[in-house]
Design brief:
Shape of chain B: globular
CATH class of the largest domain in chain A: Mainly Alpha
Number of domains of chain A: 3
CATH architecture of the largest domain in chain A: Up-down Bundle
Strand content of chain A: under 5%
Distance between the termini of chain B: 40 Å
Largest interface: A-B, 27 and 34 residues
Largest sheet of chain A: none
Largest sheet of chain B: 2 strands, antiparallel
Low-confidence stretches of chain A: 176-195
Strand content of chain B: under 5%
Number of helices of chain A: 8
Number of domains of chain B: 1
Structural class of chain A: mainly alpha
Oligomer: heterodimer
Helix content of chain A: 55-70%
CATH superfamily of the largest domain in chain A: NADH-ubiquinone/plastoquinone oxidoreductase chain 6, subunit NuoJ
Strand order of the largest sheet of chain B: 1-2
Shape of chain A: globular
Mean pLDDT of chain B: 84
Helix content of chain B: 55-70%
Distance between the termini of chain A: 47 Å
């Protein structure tokens, strides 16, 4: 299991690096897919198979597909992508933040940070750990308030998105404006695709 | 977990079987189509035209592979494989028959005894869209791109309905393990009616069936390859064996979906009065496997039957059905199942 864990970790780091260094967003999305899959592999090697499958189902199966949908819809050309320049402060800020989190990680593993990381040979997973039953019991018992708060947050976000997205779609009332009403037209298949 | 030679044989057998069903399915597709349209279908190559798929395969393998100029090569090559692999992967968790004991050793007719089997199947089917999306985009052509867009929107929409249908099944069966879902469906009511979940969850079964057609891009939901609108859809720029891989992926996905449908709603390998669920003999296991295969064959036939009977939906109708009919119905079904569970 240890060898698999480190193999998945190495793949995750490599694919994550490839993801942020690709110029074309489709390739970035492709590497992100590989990265998400290897993180799911890490979960499975840590006896959290439920979390691993959910990772693939939600992030790779739903969220990334939406990313891909938007990228393909915009379909930026090579010229557009090459014309885009990265400001100097962006890589610098990324480097500083990256070093900060890497430092935290090293401190957690090697130093004496509170909640210090323990090698898994010293802390074997208890029986049933990571199973669906165990997972459900934890969420709906110990973290039930936090879980419900998150769902309220998501509903608020969805409502906000609908409000922002629909604001410009409201048709002008006839008679109020001097402009002629837009001609009524049947939505064709291609427009429905872009809608 | 110790892996015996039998486990490896089962794994190889499942993949081999799936690949062997595909030519037969293509032959059946043409024969069923011909029958429905009042024709004879393939009848020149071999008895009843049975060798026609072999001839087709030889043709596809020896055909020139044309890679159009301007395609994005890495993703263009990756596309067909990404359609095939997830479909075949999902078969790993399907129980093809009950356990048997060979030489004192338990051999499950299942490649991976995963405790989160249902979720694994959903995860695999949700990955099927990447092959179409990458292939369609990399073709650098407008029709495949439109197909890729349609496909990703369609898959996301119907995945929600399918997932919610499965939630109701999981609530009724009380497990996400496919083995246990099959186990709770053994036995009968009044000695005649099998306790299949289709009788307890008819709405979920219907929703799953409709969503399965959409997930597999089969008529009446084959918008990503609507030949009358998009030339050939996402595989317009593909030829030879790469084109055949897309086809193989679609047919394997059909087999997987039928197998999952049978497992979730139609008692899996069980059949009252025919298969003894408590038996562990090899003969009984093979019988349960045959029962499972017969049920899967019926749903494969159902796929073909629907394809040659119903016309294609319009894209906005497809979205309307998914979001305004199936998903609210599925949500209602989940709530209703919850109420019944409490009572």
């Amino acid at each position: 299991m240890d060898a698999l864990y480190f193999a998945f970790s190495a793949i995750a780091v490599y694919t994550a690096l490839m993801m942020v260094t690709r110029r074309h967003p489709i390739y970035a999305a492709g590497w992100m897919l590989a990265c998400l899959a290897s993180v799911a592999g890490i979960f499975v090697t840590l006896h959290a198979s439920f979390l691993g499958v959910i990772q693939v189902l939600l992030y790779a199966g739903a969220i990334l597909v939406l990313f891909l949908f938007v990228i393909m819809l915009l379909n930026p050309s090579k010229e557009e992508l090459e014309a885009e320049r990265v400001a100097l402060w962006q890589p610098v800020a990324g480097l500083v933040l990256g070093c900060f989190f890497a430092g935290l990680l090293v401190w957690a593993v090697l130093g004496d940070a509170p909640g210090k990381a323990i090698p898994f040979s010293e802390y074997p997973a208890p029986d049933g750990f990571g199973s669906t039953t165990d997972f459900g019991a934890t969420i709906y018992d110990r973290y039930v308030v936090a879980f419900e708060l998150i769902s309220v947050l998501i509903i608020a976000a969805i409502a906000a998105v609908i409000l922002v997205g629909k604001r410009n779609l409201r048709p002008a009332r006839p008679g109020r404006t001097s402009e002629p009403a837009p001609p009524a037209h049947r939505e064709t298949t291609e427009e429905a695709v872009h809608a | 977990m110790n892996i015996s030679i039998w486990n490896i044989l089962v794994a190889v057998g499942v993949v081999g079987l799936a690949l062997q069903i595909v030519p037969g399915l293509i032959w059946a597709e043409r024969k069923v189509c011909a029958r429905i349209q009042g024709r004879r279908g393939p009848n020149r190559v071999g008895p009843f035209g049975l060798l026609q798929p072999v001839a087709d395969a030889i043709k596809l393998l020896t055909k020139e592979e044309i890679v159009p100029a301007g395609v994005d090569k890495p993703l263009y090559y990756l596309g067909p494989f990404l359609v095939f692999v997830p479909a075949a992967l999902a078969m790993a968790v399907v129980p093809w028959g009950h356990d048997m004991v060979i030489g004192g050793q338990r051999v499950p007719l299942q490649v991976a005894e995963l405790h989160v089997g249902v979720l694994f199947v959903l995860a695999c089917t949700s990955l099927g869209v990447y092959g179409i999306a990458f292939g369609g985009w990399a073709s650098n052509s407008k029709y495949p791109l439109l197909a890729a867009l349609r496909s990703s929107a369609q898959m996301i929409s119907y995945e929600v309905a399918m997932g919610l249908a499965v939630v109701a099944v999981v609530m009724t069966a009380g497990s996400v393990d496919l083995r246990e879902i099959v186990a709770v469906q053994q036995g009968t009511w009044f000695g005649v009616v099998p306790q299949w979940l289709v009788f307890k969850q008819p709405i979920a079964a219907l929703l799953f069936l409709v969503a399965a057609f959409a997930e597999n891009n089969r008529l009446p939901f084959d918008l990503p390859e609507a030949e009358s609108e998009l030339v050939g859809g996402y595989h317009t720029e593909y030829s030879g064996m790469k084109f055949a891989m897309f086809f193989l992926g679609e047919y394997v996905a059909m087999i997987t979906m039928s197998a999952v449908l049978v497992t979730l709603f139609f008692g899996g390998w069980g059949f009252p009065g025919l298969v003894d669920p408590s038996s562990t003999s090899v003969g009984s296991a093979l019988l349960s496997f045959a029962v499972f295969l017969a049920k899967v064959s019926f749903f494969l036939f159902f796929y073909l039957w629907v394809r040659w009977t119903l016309p294609r939906f319009r894209y906005d109708q497809l979205m309307m059905l998914g979001w305004k009919a199936l998903i609210p119905l599925a949500l209602f079904n989940v709530v209703a199942t919850g109420f019944v569970g409490i009572l």
